[in-house]
Write a structure and sequence with these properties.
heterotetramer; A mainly alpha (306); B alpha+beta (517); C mainly alpha (293); D alpha/beta (593); A: 306 residues; mainly alpha; B: 517 residues; globular; binds adenosine-5'-triphosphate; binds magnesium ion; ABC_transporter-like_CS (chain D); transport (chain D); ABC_transporter-like_ATP-bd (chain D)
């Protein structure tokens, strides 16, 4: 177990190294010059060159990357070109919000998606199942911005149940988390449905029925843990999708997460921030996959960690 | 006093302002976007200032100033007893330090270029500017290497704000996060990515202001949501204005429309035509494009929030040429011109545009107008950084300036020329995206800028007017419209309307607005 | 000696069986409708999709709601929405079907190979997949598209290149369990070549998964294209696509709901239609489902 | 109809109390063609303390009957369409689901055919047991746990306390089946339905389970419905027998009568098909060339672990095995589950990495290039244990049979199809069924399809890995006949792998007995069955149930010990078995010191 963990951690570190290299390279070849934006409109050519040198952006790629990596290993993620702030500070100040939102969203996603999937599987082929299938399509296909605004409008502005955006209390968390939950639930419900249908056919479900257990117990205690296994692997994937999708929800709900930070940085080619956010989100994804792999054997003792 | 605040104004209260984007930095030497511009203005003061709600200069930290006969020496007499937020009194040393700092290349100030007229600018560095001298603790003498008529405006720029050395040294690179100035407000709280709180500077040297106890800036808020919150009474001023999607709704509701303040601003939206890329190297073609654009339609698309432009300068800018009608909307004439240039069948080109609403829409309207005279313009709808890159590198044949457009740094006609129409900006990486360079006009501009004598102001403006007319003749730009500001405020906001469309303090002049209770 | 349990099902073509299913037929009809709309757009569209009509905007510059002239209303530039939707179907079909299909193919190939070859090939492929998964797709898309010149086909390729990852993961897991099944071992003892085992024997069993991911992917890729074009790397305006019609107008969902909900419904309907057909196809193509249901 | 005569006979016995009465039961399935009857007009009584066996070929409706009693029919496709099931005062067919739930597990319990999959893999044994108890008895956790341990002890599972915390996959098949029995009996039900409780188990384990059932019945007085197609099991366990065919009851009688005086023709055929020990036809010893030769073959599966993925353990699946198979011979490999039989088969077809030498037709297998391997595979073909699993369910039978021809590029499409049709006919299937899919055939038919496929390349050696174990007796007999016929016709050799001693006795020329990866005894059929020397061989033979009710065997002391493990640390090897020739090539193993 410990050996497995260490091996996986080394693997993860290599993945992060790969991600950092590729990102750095892509940003290097990207046709947009950050120096021009720093220097401003009235800057002379010398000023521009001067800034370029100060930032080391005149060096060959491999030197720049080496420097970045060297600093990174000492915990220095650099300073934002345009915000002039330590990237680590920027990210640290926003990370808790994103993690909280992610946690809330995944809980909602799972609650909604799994419930929908289970119900659809139990009522397979009936109208309810079909309705849920269509629902899952709607949630997968719905434009994030519109759903976010719609929910905000109805539940915060019109009904006043929740604050109109912001961050701080549990009430602030509900709407954005539910929005993300609704948007992501479609995938889970479809996965859960098919997995559940398979499991419900299994011999041990028949055994459970033969024992005279109630339907609820059979579904929740016997079928669910077995059916949820493929879904757990999905959570790892989902964190990746999530990291890509929080920008809109964060900005509609005024949620101070790293999605907004990333979006602005991409627009302005603020390389240190892009690098930092990329690494953090890659880290989250790698960690998510690792967690998924660690949780799976807790549920299914047959899976051995090797 | 040069300005009488609203007699009904009451001190106290707090307002909430929202923004979508994070506040970049509050370091006056570095902050250079319209969002932190007004915030820095309230935290810091320069030697010069503007009368609230106008473009009229007034003394700031300088009590008075003298300009030498030749216009090369400015002697500023500082106000006594002005205190920084850290409690120390401001002296002439601080003024020199601040100017040295902003011009030191290590500071990487995007505004350093504004000070190029100060003697010793070329050698600015850790040693400081030779042209700035401390005469006595309350007197600073600034020597210019050439006359600069805009110099007093330059001294009113945020970049010329006075900062205390010890605070800068202490904060180091983080001064932008821990600003210390002499302004009406001081920074009380900054939660990255969430909110900033400005708190009244009780020791402010201008008596009676500010009125507000505090200003809360909430960042990361979608403009549409900000407006919803305003309607719900949670926000006082949405910093990003009224989003296009809500504009008709707001203006259609008398109650809300009554709270909208409209004003002009020193802004021109234009299309640059790269004179080095064929066929825009032909004057006829550039003129044809100028005649092809239906500006009224474009104004309609942005819900009439602008007036069609005829020339680079906006109407409220001194030096604006009254009575000049610009190129008429005349597709037939444009076609004829194209034919003259040997391009009767039109041609294909590219139009770069920044990707935020409404710019892509405006670009499409432009595209349609061009198509009408046979020009097929493919739109390159890109992120700001990419457009700026293409513009600087001179690879973009046409750029719609929206979103990155020129809002004047100070209300002087020269501000629309140098970097964006002059030869200095026409280099690789420069901001003159037309790559237009006319030495004759450049010489005229230089001449105008050296007419520092206030007595010659009229003459100088005439000269500038000529320069811009010269530009129009060569047609490197298509001036499309001059945007107007529509600021919506909450019911409780007080203060005259001009404060809400203050040309140099967007969205509002925090120092003078107040709240009714 | 016939076994009594053998049910005699009259052999029928897959198509005939497909056509017997009402839902599948409904889905097929929608797909045909959309394809026809896209192909015949120049003939059916009431207006030029790029024509910013003078009477398409109110005097205040607001778009027109659906009426007798503009059946689905106009957009913010006064263009006819119906015409734009018809032309936009061309783009969206390419993205939703071609790009998404390509992603599916890449993902399936990677997943199937990695799942089948447990050794270093599988290891390398899966580590690469992990890396890609950890990599922000949007950034990759931006860079790829900035390096190439944006065009519909480049965008389709970019989407394919960033979207295959999840499919690869899922297919990988399934393949590795399929690879241990007896009939695969049987096939090996017959001397079957690896490609034959992979494509003739394993691939058909992956069909249900591929269909689920493929159909769910339609709407997400169509929307992704809109995000990309917003960043300047999708199809460029004024070329319409369903995704970018929504994207351009999403803030107007109150002021001009037709600009958001009509194309939104179109995307959902198309994805749903493919799903209905896919589901039916899966059942029809799965011989073990014959006679059951 | 035999029913009329049978019923009075059973009714005449001095009936103790009847616990379950099935009257005119009909079960039908809804299909595209309308209702298809699965069970028709079935009637029987079950009395307290008796064991009623339901026998019959696969698909005759045995399982459906038991599911109908439990109320577990796969609704809505399959449902009861007539008759009644009286249990005490209640008609089970009319009960609501909640009411049925009260009965299930508590008063009628069931053990299923497949112990490997009938337990929930993600719940501990203890949890599954306690849950069953608490579902019907209002007891607390600790009490449920106590009773569960008691039940495990009752089924003589070693270390019951430890087992409570284990997961099903940590137990062997026999142990799992005991857990199932413990679960079924924990609540002391009046009726226990055991659906093929031992079919999937080794003979030795089967023996233990059967003994256990009998003991428990004697102690608790439970009435048992025992479903099986193994007439040996019937003979040993049942008081009365119902024989079913195609959903109908063809004969009902006491066990003695069924075996002594079978009335229905079907029953007679069924009994005739039962393989019996010592009934194998003697054949002349085969003295042909060796077609396959294994010398000192070792197969080990490394188990990796640790940071660097080093080998921490090895599964010693096959240890130093040597034998050869002669041309035209049937060589049998017997032994318990997990002893390495399949691994040898896999090594022979190149699916398992091995050390030592394997020669096919004089050519060594090691170091062959892919082309050579492909060529060699033409000479050795394999028929798998589970025909359903070994046939790609998405391919038509015609394609499946022609598959080897396609792979080896023999002939064109038309001739391949013709050959497939020919092979179908040869294994006794209709050529017209070429376009059907595997699931449309019965198990026996599927196994024939596998054989046809193996024959397509006219191999020298066919490996039949438990090829008939899953089939019911009559079908099994037919398949065995087919194998024999093909051998005499085509002169090919078989490596016949089985754990069923009776079958092996019927078909093989020579036999090797394996235990924990090593051969412990090897010789001709006569030598092994006539003069078994190794204690393990004897135990295997003794464990075989004898299909004769008069030969009731005495209960032996049972051992609940676990099979020793083939897993060792690197560097450690199991003690090697040395084979000694005790005359005429009869090799008997003794463990080297
Ligand atoms: N869900 C179902 N739908 C339709 N037919 C079914 C279903 N389940 C079983 N059958 C059919 O019912 C018949 C009887 O099946 P059953 O399982 O009772 O046979 P069995 O006697 O138990 O055979 P085996 O010895 O193979 O277990 C078979 O022909 C089978 O094909
Ligand atoms: N791929 C593998 N990796 C590790 N161990 C394996 C593998 N395959 C088989 N084994 C182990 O090798 C041993 C021999 O297995 P094998 O399948 O040959 O047994 P068998 O005699 O055929 O049993 P059965 O009668 O159950 O089919 C078993 O302990 C098994 O767990
Ligand atoms: Mg059965
Ligand atoms: Mg085996």
């Amino acid at each position: 177990m410990a050996a497995y963990l260490i091996r996986r951690l080394i693997q993860s570190a290599l993945i992060l190294l790969g991600v950092s290299f590729i990102t750095f390279f892509l940003l290097f070849v990207l046709p947009a010059d950050p120096v021009r934006q720093i220097a401003g409109r009235s800057a002379t050519a010398e000023t521009v060159e001067n800034i370029r040198q100060q930032l080391g952006l005149d060096k060959p790629f491999i030197v720049q990357y080496g420097r970045y990596l060297g600093a990174l290993l000492q915990g220095d993620m650099g300073r934002s070109y345009l915000q002039k702030t330590e990237v680590a500070d920027l990210i640290l100040s926003r990370l808790p919000a994103t993690l909280l939102l992610m946690l809330g969203a995944i809980v909602c996603e799972l609650l909604l998606g799994l419930t929908m999937g289970i119900v659809a599987a139990l009522w397979r082929g009936r109208a309810l199942d079909q309705t849920l299938m269509v629902t899952s399509f709607v949630t997968v296909s719905a434009p994030q911005f519109v759903v976010s605004l719609l929910l905000l409008y109805v539940f915060a502005v019109k009904l006043g149940w929740f604050p109109i955006g912001g961050y701080g209390t549990f009430a602030h968390l509900v709407l954005p988390a539910v929005t993300l939950g609704i948007l992501g639930s479609g995938w889970y419900s479809r996965m859960m449905r098919s997995s559940m249908i398979d499991v419900l056919r299994a011999d041990y479900i028949r055994t459970a029925r033969a024992k005279g257990l109630t339907r609820a117990r059979i579904v929740l205690r016997h079928a669910l843990p077995n059916a949820i296994l493929p879904v757990i692997a999905m959570i790892g994937i989902d964190i990746g999708i999530f990291m890509g999708g929080i920008v809109v929800v964060e900005s509609v709900f005024g949620w101070p997460g790293i999605g907004q930070l990333a979006w602005q940085a991409i627009q302005r080619v603020d390389i240190p921030i892009i690098m930092g956010v990329t690494l953090v989100s890659a880290f989250a994804i790698v960690l998510g996959n690792l967690l998924a792999d660690l949780i799976a054997p807790l549920i299914d003792p047959r899976i051995r960690l090797r | 006093q040069d300005y009488t605040p609203d007699p009904a104004a009451k001190p106290g209260g707090s307002i909430t302002v929202t923004y979508k984007d994070d506040v970049a930095t509050l370091d006056p030497a570095i902050g250079y976007d319209w969002q932190n511009w007004s915030m820095i203005k309230s935290l810091f003061d320069g030697l010069m200032d503007y009368v609230p709600g106008t473009t009229t200069l007034r003394p700031g930290l300088a009590e008075s100033y003298e300009i030498s006969e030749d216009g090369l020496t400015y002697t500023f007499r500082l106000r006594a007893g002005v205190k920084f937020h850290n409690g120390r009194e401001m002296t002439a040393e601080d003024v020199k330090y601040s100017l040295d700092r902003v011009t030191n290349p290590e500071t990487q100030s995007p505004g350093a270029g504004f000070f190029s007229a100060i003697a010793g600018f070329e050698n600015a560095g850790p040693g400081g500017l030779s042209g700035v001298e401390v005469v006595d603790p309350l007197t600073v003498k600034i020597t210019l290497s050439r006359p600069d008529a805009t110099f007093l405006h330059v001294m009113a720029l945020n970049f010329a704000s006075v900062v205390p050395k010890e605070a800068v040294d202490e904060a180091g690179a983080d001064f932008g996060k821990k600003p210390v100035g002499t302004g009406a407000f001081k920074l009380a709280e900054w939660t990255l990515g969430q909110r900033l709180v400005f708190e009244k500077n009780a020791d402010y040297w201008r008596p009676g202001v500010p009125f507000l106890d505090s200003v809360v800036f909430e960042v990361g808020q979608e403009p549409v949501v900000a407006l919803l919150r305003l309607q719900n009474g949670e926000v006082d001023v949405p910093g990003d204005g009224i989003p296009p999607a809500k504009f008709t709704e707001v203006m259609g509701d008398p109650a809300q429309a009554a709270r909208v303040v409209v004003g002009g601003q020193l802004h021109t939206g234009y299309i640059t035509l790269n004179v080095t890329i064929p066929p825009f190297d032909k004057l006829e073609v550039r003129k044809a494009v100028n005649m092809a654009i239906n500006k009224d339609r474009i104004v309609q698309i942005i819900n009439g929030r602008a007036v069609p432009a005829t020339q680079p300068l906006p109407p409220s800018m001194p030096g604006y040429t009254e009575g000049y009608a610009g190129y008429p909307y005349d597709p037939e004439g444009a076609k004829a011109l194209l034919a003259e240039a040997g391009l009767a069948d039109g041609f294909e080109t590219e139009l770069y545009v920044m990707n935020t609403d409404p710019n892509p829409r405006i670009a499409q309207a432009i595209q349609q107008d061009l198509a009408a005279i046979g020009i097929k313009a493919n739109i390159q709808n890109l992120a700001q950084a990419n457009v700026i890159e293409a513009g600087g590198a001179g690879t973009a044949p046409m750029i719609w300036s929206g979103g990155m457009a020129w809002i004047a740094d100070f209300p002087d006609p020269s501000n629309f020329y140098g970097p964006i129409l002059g030869c200095a900006g026409a280099v690789d990486g420069g901001w003159n995206w037309s790559k237009f360079c006319d030495p004759v006009l450049d010489a005229k501009a230089a001449e105008a800028d050296s007419m520092a004598d206030p007595a010659k102001a009229e003459e100088r403006l005439k000269l500038w007017s000529d320069v811009y007319m010269g530009v129009m003749e060569q047609a490197p730009w298509v001036p499309v419209f001059n945007e107007e500001r529509y600021t919506i405020k909450s019911e409780r906001m007080g203060g005259e309307d001009a404060l809400y469309v203050d040309p140099v303090s967007i969205p509002v002049n925090y120092d003078y607005v107040w709240v009714k209770e | 000696m016939t076994d009594p349990s053998v049910v005699d099902v009259p052999p029928q073509g897959a198509l005939a069986r497909l056509l017997r299913r009402k839902l599948a037929l409904f889905g097929l009809a929608i797909i045909v409708l959309v394809v026809a709309g896209a192909v015949f757009a120049p003939w059916i569209a009431p207006f030029d999709p790029n024509d910013q009509m003078f009477d398409g905007l109110t005097l205040e510059g607001a778009p027109m709601p659906p009426d007798g002239k503009f059946l689905m209303g106009t957009d913010l530039l006064g263009r006819d929405l119906l015409s734009r939707l018809l032309y936009g179907a061309q783009t969206s079909l390419v993205i939703g079907v071609v790009a998404n299909g390509l992603a599916l193919v890449i993902g399936t190939l990677v997943g199937i190979t990695a799942g089948f070859f447990r050794g270093w090939i599988g290891g390398v492929l899966m580590r690469f997949t992990d890396l890609m998964m950890a990599f922000p797709a949007l950034l990759l898309a931006i860079c790829l598209a900035a390096i190439f010149r944006p065009s519909l086909w480049i965008v389709a390729m970019v989407i394919a290149l960033v979207n295959w990852v999840q499919t690869a993961r899922v297919i990988y897991t399934e393949t590795s369990s399929l690879a241990t099944r007896d009939f695969i071992a049987a096939e090996r003892t017959l001397g079957a070549s690896t490609p034959r085992i992979l494509f003739r024997h394993i691939l058909p069993h992956l069909l249900p998964t591929i269909i689920v991911w493929g159909t769910l992917g339609i709407s997400t890729t169509v929307l992704l294209e809109a995000t990309l074009s917003f960043l300047g790397i999708g199809v460029q305006p004024p070329t319409p696509s369903w995704g970018n019609i929504i994207f351009e107008n999403q803030t107007y969902f109150q002021a001009a709901p037709w600009l958001v909900f009509i194309p939104g419904a179109a995307i959902i309907l198309l994805a749903l239609a493919f799903n209905l057909v896919g589901d039916a196809l899966r059942d029809v193509l799965d011989p073990t489902q014959r006679g059951r249901d | 109809m035999t029913l009329a005569e049978a019923l009075p006979a059973s009714g005449a016995a001095p009936a103790p109390e009847t616990v379950l009465r099935v009257e005119g039961l009909c079960v039908s399935a809804r299909t595209e063609q309308g209702l298809k009857p699965l069970v028709q007009d079935l009637s029987f009584d079950l009395r307290k303390g008796e064991t009623l066996a339901i026998a019959g070929e696969s698909g005759s409706g045995k399982s459906i009957t038991s599911l109908a009693i439990m109320g577990l029919l796969p609704q809505p496709a399959v449902r009861v369409t007539g008759g009644s099931i009286r249990f005490g005062q209640q008609d089970l067919t009319a009960l609501s689901e909640p009411a049925l739930r009260q009965v299930r597990g508590d008063r009628i319990a069931m053990i299923f055919q497949e112990p490997m999959t009938s337990l929930n893999p993600v719940m501990t044994v203890g949890a599954q047991l306690s849950e069953a108890i608490r579902a019907h008895a209002p007891v607390g956790r600790t009490e449920a746990r106590r009773r569960a341990i008691e039940a495990l002890r009752a089924v003589r599972l070693s270390e019951p306390e430890r087992r409570m915390g284990q997961y099903p996959h940590e137990l062997s098949g026999g142990m799992r089946q005991r857990v199932m029995i413990a679960m079924a009996l924990a609540l002391r039900p009046e009726v226990l339905i055991a659906d093929e409780p031992t079919t999937a188990l080794d003979v030795t384990v089967q023996r233990e389970v059967l003994d256990l059932l009998r003991d428990l019945q004697a102690r608790l007085g439970t009435a048992i419905i025992l479903i099986t197609h193994d007439m040996g099991v019937v003979a040993e366990m049942a008081n009365r027998v119902i024989v079913m065919q195609q959903g109908r009851q063809v004969e009902t009688a006491s066990t003695e009568d069924i075996f002594g005086r079978p009335q229905a023709a079907y029953t007679q055929a069924l009994l005739a098909a039962v393989p019996r020990l010592g009934r194998g036809s003697a054949r002349a010893p085969v003295t042909g060339e060796p077609i396959a030769r294994l010398s000192d073959v070792v197969v080990r599966y490394p188990l990796r672990g640790g940071l660097l993925g080093r080998i921490t353990h090895n599964v010693h699946a096959v240890e130093h095995v040597s034998f050869d198979i002669r041309k035209g011979e049937t060589f049998a490999l017997v032994g318990e589950s997990g002893c390495g039989k399949s691994t040898i088969a896999k090594a022979l077809v190149g699916l398992a990495p091995h050390q030592g030498q394997i020669e096919i037709g004089g050519q060594a297998m090691q170091g062959l290039d892919p082309a050579g391997l492909k060529a060699m595979r033409r000479r050795v073909q394999m028929v798998f244990q589970d025909p359903m699993a070994a046939l790609n369910p998405r391919m038509k039978v015609g394609e499946l049979i022609a598959e080897p021809l396609v792979i080896h590029d023999i002939g064109d499409a038309a001739s391949q199809r013709a050959r497939a049709a020919d092979l179908m006919a040869r294994v006794g299937l209709e050529a017209s069924h070429l376009d059907r899919y595997p699931h449309e055939f019965s198990g026996g038919q599927r196994q024939r399809i596998c054989i046809a496929r193996a024959l397509a390349l006219q191999p020298d050696l066919i490996i039949a890995d438990e090829s008939v174990s899953a089939l019911d007796v009559s079908v099994q007999a037919r398949v065995l006949d087919l194998l024999r016929a093909l051998q005499s016709e085509l002169g090919m050799s078989y490596l016949f792998i089985s754990h069923d001693m009776a079958v092996v006795d019927n078909i093989s020329d020579r036999v090797a007995v394996m235990f924990l990866g090593q051969i412990v005894e090897m010789g001709t059929r006569a030598q092994i069955f006539g003069n078994p020397q190794h204690p393990y061989t004897r135990r295997l033979i003794e464990a075989v149930p004898i299909p004769d009710p008069r030969l009731k065997r005495l209960s032996r002391p049972r051992d609940a010990s676990e099979v020793p493990s083939p897993v060792h640390r690197p560097g450690h090897e199991p003690a090697r078995v040395i084979l000694r020739d005790i005359g005429d090539g009869h090799l008997v193993g003794t463990s080297a010191g």
